[in-house]
């Protein structure tokens, strides 16, 4: 069957999705205020707060049917915002949360916002994992190693995006972030507006690690780079698909930052010239690594009336067919840790593997530091926000 037209398949941005789901969130929040007796039937309902993909009907509909339950899902585009919502009381709203790897260990578990999984039940599932994620994988565990905080599934490298018909992947890898920061590259790239990811990559471009407290002098250098990046961009967008379309139609040549998932759907739709590229050299304090690799952790929210279906859902996601559906949900395609299982790998064809750049995946991951918390985030975000306001 012929694939959907690219413009149609890319018609909805993450931000648009969030607007569309405001009513869902409001309904869930209202339900959370019901008397305790009203929750007696929670075994037939579950609420998920997640990055795109897990909210796909391709993933959720089989679960709804098998477990005879209602599943409501809301997408997110900012880990820090999601953490703050849980802090503000949304632990009464959600049953499952899906965030990048560091939040569970660093903040969610220490602040009692998530609850551990049953190790005896879930540890055997780690036999499915690729070697890099074998048990006990530290980002899935508490600091003391005693508690399993969630399950790792999707992952990938993050660097920049480029149309290789305009700039070769080798050139971008060698020149790194400096290529897009050159004056003669003004107007040739977009900025993907996932706030913490922009900040991380700009800090790295300035020559530092974002995963430690920064000095005032370092922050001043970061500000210079951030303002130049924002001012020289052709446009700013939180819609990765709009950026991919810009690269396809020639209005831009690349994106800062960008991950494999940002162009995987476009690549699968017949645009293999779009690639995620991780620079070859980064700050010495990062071991020379210039990219950031992310791994999503799916956890149980510490909801006082937690749905019993929440644990079932996390286990369900590790079935080979579901793992493939999570990997290849509508609009974005990603590798999954369960590709260490031959039964999962057998579900992918060559074209699907090429969509998320499987040929260079291991090499790109090796050039990345693990995603972590940004200690100077508040100061760095203020500078980022000011630069965006000035451009507007």
TrEMBL record:
PROSITE patterns: TAT. This is Spermidine/putrescine transport system substrate-binding protein. The keyword Signal applies. Keywords: Signal. It comes from Peteryoungia aggregata LMG 23059. It comes from the Bacteria. InterPro entries: TAT_signal. The keyword ATP-binding does not apply.
């Amino acid at each position: 069957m012929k694939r959907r037209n690219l413009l149609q398949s890319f018609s909805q941005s993450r931000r648009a999705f969030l607007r569309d789901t405001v009513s869902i969130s409001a309904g869930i929040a209202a339900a959370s205020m019901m008397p305790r007796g009203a929750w007696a039937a929670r075994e037939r309902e579950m609420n998920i707060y997640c990055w795109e993909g897990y909210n796909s009907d391709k993933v959720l509909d089989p679960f709804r049917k098998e477990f005879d339950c209602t599943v409501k899902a809301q997408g997110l585009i900012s880990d820090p915002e999601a953490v703050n919502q849980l802090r503000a009381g949304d632990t009464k709203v959600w049953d499952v949360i899906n965030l990048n790897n560091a939040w569970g260990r660093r903040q969610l578990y220490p602040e009692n916002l998530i609850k551990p999984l049953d190790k005896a039940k879930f540890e055997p599932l780690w036999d499915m994992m690729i070697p890099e994620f074998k048990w006990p994988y530290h980002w899935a565990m508490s600091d003391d190693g005693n508690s399993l905080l969630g399950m790792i599934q999707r992952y990938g490298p993050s660097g920049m995006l480029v149309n290789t018909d305009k700039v070769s992947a080798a050139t971008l890898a060698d020149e790194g972030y400096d290529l897009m920061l050159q004056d003669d590259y003004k107007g040739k790239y977009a900025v993907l507006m996932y706030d913490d990811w922009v900040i991380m990559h700009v800090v790295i471009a300035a020559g530092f690690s974002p995963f430690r407290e920064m000095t005032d002098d370092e922050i001043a250098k970061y500000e210079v780079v951030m303002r130049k990046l924002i001012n020289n961009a052709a446009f700013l967008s939180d819609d990765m698909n709009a950026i991919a379309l810009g690269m396809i139609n020639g209005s831009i040549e690349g994106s800062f930052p960008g991950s494999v998932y940002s162009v995987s759907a476009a690549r699968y739709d017949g645009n293999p010239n779009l690639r995620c590229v991780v620079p070859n050299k980064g700050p010495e304090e990062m071991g020379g690594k210039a990219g950031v690799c992310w791994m999503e952790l799916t956890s149980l929210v510490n909801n006082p009336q937690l749905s019993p279906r929440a644990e079932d859902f996390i286990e369900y996601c590790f079935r080979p067919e579901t793992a493939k559906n999570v990997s290849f949900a509508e609009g974005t395609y990603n590798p999954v840790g369960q590709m260490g299982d031959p039964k999962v790998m057998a579900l992918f064809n060559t074209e699907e593997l090429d969509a998320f750049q499987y040929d260079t995946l291991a090499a790109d991951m090796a050039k990345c530091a693990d995603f972590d918390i940004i200690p100077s985030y508040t100061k760095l975000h203020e500078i980022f926000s000011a630069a965006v306001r000035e451009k507007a």
